[in-house]
Amino acid sequence: MRAHPSRSRAGWLAFALALVVGCTGTPAPLRPTPAPTREPNTISVNVLLDLSGPRAPSGQPQRNAMQLWLDQQQASAPVRLRVKFVDVAGSDARVLLELRHAVVDDRADAIVIGAPIVLDEAFAQAIQVAAVPVLLTLPGPDPAATVAGRWTFMLAPSPDDVARALVDDIQARALLAPMLLASDETSSGVGERAAFVAELARRALLTPTAVIVTQPDGPSRMRAAAAVAKSVVLAAPSAPYGDLLRALPVTLDAPRVYLSYLTETADVTNLREQSALVTWPGSRNLATISVRPLPTARAVFVQSFTERHGAPSTLAGSAYDALGLLQTAAQQAPAELDASRLRLRLETLTFLGVVTRYAFTFSRHAGFAPDDLAFLRWNSQRGAPFLAPEPREVAK
Fold first, then answer.
1. Residue 201 CB neighbours (<10 A)
2. What is the C-alpha separation between 176 and 113, in angstroms, rounded?
3. pLDDT at residue number 242
């Protein structure tokens, strides 16, 4: 079995220190600390989440979903997962730091990141040095097209996929003009806004009124534009927009409000009466659950999560699927659990999760099936999302 990269680096460091000691004539012997022995049929997974700090969405629902998966694991499973949750507290720098700690200090075999990241050069270099599979649960570009793509796997749709679905829905419902596009200009907001504007331009459609809500006049401009708009598109998680959304009148001519894919169910319930105005992209599979005649794994997840924490979001479902993906890949060859072999199995894996059917290839590391992306609305009586009615056909 190939030696773990971090263990190899540790060995070379010990060898270099021994040479230094020998050259200085110091008689004290060097006794390098032995690397910990791998627990048989077990892989170590570090999960990086925003469990504190102001950044949205909170990682707590993802943690809850992963803990549910761990509680449901069968003791007789050929390969077990040992999971460590790490709070990155809304810090991009801490994500990079914890990547290093996961590999060098914790000897992690795989890493799951459920916090917003930017696939820039610094992140790519960190992934390359880590040299273990990294699963991302939030939207981003296909990692296969990036420098870090060899080790990175995306479980969510890309911003471009979400933008295409969003424009399709708005256009089919004849809600293109007037339209308001609001952003908080966080990294998530910038990416979603850019993808949406690019999709409108590709179809030669009108540019919406754009408002940056974090500017001094942002809230007042958003209220004024929303008063006449047919549709309101919010880039980035909706929690920072709560007060502005709760001020919208719930009337027949109120605008349809499109929330981000990064929407948690708590974001919707916190809107109170205005929850009737909103829709958001997510997995159609979490809104079409049936427990008859026999409960599926998806139905068991939804029921179990709901009993503990309320209705699950698509993000929570993706986190749940991340552990299932890793276990499935590992169980194909329990005696060969090194990072390189685990990565190769993920690249050829098709896995039916609770959110979607994930399928990866050597040249495609974005596994979400676009056909499973749908628009959800909120049923306040059931306390659960449901599929938004199909838009009426619009005469061209």
1. 10
2. 35
3. 87
